[in-house]
Fold this sequence. Notes:
Strands 1, 2, 3, 4, 5, 6, 7, 8, 9, 10 and 11 form an eleven-stranded mixed sheet that branches. The longest helix has 14 residues, at about 50-60. This protein has eight helices and eleven strands. The chain has two domains: about 1-25 and about 175-235, no CATH class; about 45-170 and about 235-275, Vaccinia Virus protein VP39 (Rossmann fold), CATH 3.40.50.150. The chain has about 280 residues and is an alpha/beta fold. A hairpin with a 2-residue loop joins β8 (about 215-220) and β9. About 30% of the residues lie in helices and about 30% in strands.
Amino acid sequence: MFDRLLEEALRKPAPYERTDDLFWSDPHISTQLLKAHLDERNPLASRSPEFIEQSVAWIESCAPQVTHPRILDLGCGPGLYAARLARRGYSVTGIDVSPASLAYAKSCSEAEGLDVEYIEGDYLDAELGGPYDVALMAYCDYGALSPDERLGLLDTLHRALRPEGVLILDVFADAHYENAFNRSRWEASSNGAFWRPDAYICLEQQTLYPPNVILDRYLVLSTAGTKSYNVWTTCFDTASLQDEAVAAGFDAVSFAADLTGAPPAEASKTLAAVLRKQETR
């Protein structure tokens, strides 16, 4: 067992290699993710309420509710953006794979009587419906996908959006990659924590794949065995993001440093874009 574990820990996965285990759909981890989303002190799962409020205001300035009433929120989590958008009059469809987050989002929207439909599924292969006026991908989800997955998703969104509909997303920027480094660390819990409800050890490795890809890899060891999770991050500059968008039939309308609409800055670790569906491609 030790030899197999050592071999796995030392192995460098191929770029965008996926693991069989999807941590966001695991019942225990899904509950832990929901707690992280709702913890205003934890920036690793969701941004602060103030940031989200500013983001929703910027989204409305880019795609006013009067002219863009139907919005698709991809990877909606517990509905932090979806609910705020619905309060501003948008008709929102949210999709996510986490059952715990969706249950929370549904209960909140039902309690307020908000115009939000939530779908449990993977937006890479789910039926998205439409047509929508706006599609939103927040918290850098786009860069977690492989090049083929990104191309496929853009093609799907091109079909789901109405003519001249807009896609608003953010990604990690080159400055994020430049500040990352190869490292390893470990965590141990005797009573359970994020990864498992019982005792475990988690080995975490961050590995750089030049010129712009980062892998965060987690090996979780417990009495139940070993599970491995790969989390990929692709970093972009305005040119590389625009190239992908144009190739998929979108025009780049504008760029910002983040989803609040702050002006682009070289030192910013994120990059936001407003992309418009071309009528022909």
